[in-house]
Structures are given as structure tokens and as C-alpha cells.
């Protein structure tokens, strides 16, 4: 009987009728475009280290007891020391990996695919999750969100995100993280706007200067600056208030010096 049609219809979907090896394949296929994550299993790592330390301690006690090291003991010692050094490097390598928060749906998919493991005592899948991929910063202000929507996707997507979000990239969905191009452009825009914000009102006040004109220009400029800070920057209330007050102080000083 040809079951290729049934298999293709279920590609990437796990159900209770499948064997473990089939569920392993389908779960891996369904998650292949996602950023690879790893489970630290810190307790198991420590158990392995302590066990190797105990084996080395027993070997040390045996050598001192007999004041002798046979060929068998030396072979065992070299193998155990090698395993111990490897375990230390593995533990340190996983510890230095970047933390990630596994989405609830991905964790649910993992537990649904392998319920016989998920239901074991000790909550086997409850551990620290990490990744070897560089985690680019996520968008954290309206300006970068806007740039990600209007710029070509060739500039807004990173190579890493294209590799595991290919479908979203081809369909034109905005990326989740900030590419270096978007970040540099956002910094450039902020630098230009930040430099022009005090200069333009000063130029306006310098032409046919009157006190009424200077005060009106200062008031309007401060209001627009406060709106831009609130709408274009993700700043706290204290940061917005401090920046607006500093901007107003610069213009007020200019009004005072130009009036004298």
C-alpha cells in the first residue's frame, strides 16, 4: 500500500498514532526554521562532574594506598581526566551561552510531541534555555519600528533571521530584530534631528529679532520637542521631562543673551 500521500499530509504534525521516531522526525521538521535552542540541564551537568570527581578521588586513594600505578590504573586515569576536563569545558560553554525565553507555544509543542518524556518526574523540559546564535536587539522605539516597515526587507532582515524566518521574509512581514542597517540609520536620523532641534529655532529668532517673536518661537519649539520625545522615543517620564527642560533651558539662555 502506498502511504506517501498520508505521510506528506502529516508532514511536521505529530499525533498519538505515531511512533517515537516518527514524532522525532516531524517535530524536528516543523521547528527547523526556528532559531536553534539548547537545554542546559544544569543539574545533570553537575551530577556528571561530581561523579567524575568521585572517580578521580577513588583513583587517587588507590594509588596512595598501594604506592603504585599500574598500566590499567594509568589508562583509567587518563580516560577519566579527559572526561573530567571535557565535562568542565561543556559546563562552562553552556553557561556562557545567551539566555533565551522559549515561547509558550514552542514549549507546548515539545511536550505534545514527546508526552512520555514530559510527564516524567522532575519536569524534564523545565530548565534554562540558551542559544549559540547572536541575539540582535529587538525594536525598542517607534522610530526603529517605522524604519523596519518602510525600508526594503533586504536592509531590515539580518542573515540569521532570514535563515529561520524565510517564509516571513518572502511574504514581506516585518522582522523581529533590528538589523545593523536599521540601527545605523536610526542613529543618524536622531543625530540630525537632535542637532537641528536647537539650531532652527535659534536661526528663526536671530532674524528680525524681537522679544515677542523669541518667546513665541521658544514656546512652540519646546512644545514640538516634547511631542517628538513622547511619540518618537521610548523614554521614561523622568527622561522626557529632563530632556524637555534641558532643551527649554538652552533656548531661554539664547533668548536672554540675544536680548541683551
Describe this structure in words.
By secondary structure, the chain is mainly alpha-helical. Helix content is 69%, strand content 3%. The chain is built from 13 helices and three strands, in the order ααβααβααβααααααα. A three-stranded antiparallel beta sheet has the order 1-3-2, covered by helices on one side. α7 packs across α11 (180-206). The protein is elongated and about 100 Å long. The N and C termini lie far apart (98 Å).
**DSSP helical segment count:** 13
Largest sheet, if any?
A: 3 strands, antiparallel
- The succession of helices and strands, N to C, reads HHEHHEHHEHHHHHHH
Kindly provide the radius of gyration, computed on alpha-carbon positions and rounded to a whole number of angstroms.
Answer: 31 Å
Major sheet strand order: 1-3-2
Mean pLDDT across the residues is: 84
What is the number of E strands? 3
Strand content: under 5%
First-last Cα distance: 98 Å
Shape: elongated
Low-confidence stretches: 1-8
Counting helices, strands and paired strands, the structural category is: mainly alpha
Q: Assign a percent range to the helix content.
A: 55-70%
